[in-house]
Structures are given as structure tokens and as C-alpha cells.
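Allow me, if you will, to draw on your knowledge of protein folds for a short while. I have a record of one protein: its chain in single-letter code and its fold written as C-alpha cells. I remain grateful for any guidance, and I place the record below:
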Amino acid sequence: MVKKLQKLSADKNTGAQLAGTVKDSAQQIWLAGLGAFAKAQEEGGKVFETLVKEGLSIQRKTQSAAEEKISEATNRMASLANDISAKATGKWDKLENIFEDRVAKALNALGVPSAKDIDVLIARIDELNENVQKLSRKAAAAPKTTASGAAKPAAKRATSRGTAAR
């Protein structure tokens, strides 16, 4: 187009020819612009769809990686929490044992019997109760009268104790 304008101006043709050439050139520029816009619009839609698909793919990969990292961090924190909890439990158990030992020593120094002492006494009481019951059964099974027909003195004592206790 520039060459056409230079040729026309070199020939010094009339202004009408120059105006027609400028009009034709403007028309061609306009049509080229419309063609470029249509092409860009057509290709732009395809490019836009491609970009959306790529963005969706990247988003999925990013979410997957983020979820993996979150899961890994959660597992790591749970493991640390379990370790800390186990250590704390061990320390509390140890502290509790120390406290119980010191309390037991203090109570022993005051003359208070321990749980072990009480268990031994309970076992001894149970043993004595069994012996008393055996003796009571033997005494009840023995004849209550002597050969002369008089009651035994031991039987009388047991009877008098029974009424006295009531």
C-alpha cells in the first residue's frame, strides 16, 4: 500500500485517485482487522478451553500434593503426641510410686499398719474363725450328759454365755 501511495504521488495524479486509493487501503485494513478479530475469537475460545483444562489438571495435582503433605504432617503430629503421652504416663507412674512409698513410710513411722499387715491379720482371723467353728462342731457333737446323767460343766458354760450375750 505504501508503494501505491508513493507511485501515485510521484505521478502527481489527481486528488481523486489519491482519495480512492486511501479509501481502498482503509477498507483493506478494516477487513484485515475484522479477520484477525474473528480468528482470535475462534482460536481464543479453543485456547481458553485448553487453559481451563490445564488449570484443572494443575489444581488436582496441587490438591493431591497438599492432601499428601497434610496427611504426612498429621501422622507425624499423632506420632509425636503418642510419644509425649507415653513419656508423660511413665513419669506420672513413677511419681505416683514414689509418693505411695513415702506415704507408706510416714504412716509406718506413725504406727499405722500397712495394707499388707492388715491382709495378714485378716487371714489370721479367718483361720481362727475356722478353728473356732471346728471346735464348736466337735463340742456340739459330743454327748451332753455324763454316765450319771448330769450335764457337762462345759456345756453349761456355753449355754450361760449364750444367754448372757443376748
